[in-house]
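ugh ok fine here u go
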Amino acid sequence: MYPNAISTPREADTQSPLIARLRACLRGTAPGRLRRDPRYGVLSPEDTARVEALFLPNPTAAAVLLPIIDHPGGPTLLFTERASMLKHHAGQIAFPGGRVEPEDGSALAGALRETAEEIGLLPSAVEVLGYLPEHLVISGYCVTPVVGLVTPGFRLAPDPREVASVFEVPLDYLLDPVNLVPQRRKIGGVVEVLLQEFQWEERRIWGATASMVLLLAEALRQGHVAHA
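structure:
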């Protein structure tokens, strides 16, 4: 179980510059804002037009948490490696989250519930900073990315039925364009497009997960979340 420590905002004079920028660019954001284009990160307009027909017209609502761990030496982003026996996206790198159930009542509640179930990170340990634009995925979901700040000192309890491992990547690494790896992949097994991915040690971060990281990087560069 978690210690009785609820993550609360740091005083302004003790915040790292990167956390302060995150707070500023995500302030006032709300869920439920869908981009007009179902982009995978930095797809060209031409590739976007080619993949648009592959997405379901009425996707299922889902939500994920982007847990930013506020380490004194620099923030990190927490990822999960999905269990190999899962029906969808087995073995892939993801953020904790899943389908928003009717009893959740909101994307935020769904993201926090799924996170607690998958890795044992309790809602009381998460300070919600804001939201990124909804993201369509080829498996038929419309995903709301919730960005949360987590104070170190928590203990995780991953569910082995859903999660093979949990790991962190320095946020500075993910925000540096030099670490992007261009890769051609087939979306839906049909349309080949150029995607931007990350390689962290032996793990490849790609697809919707990489795209959400790119949306976060875009928001930091622009100083606000774009809902183009």
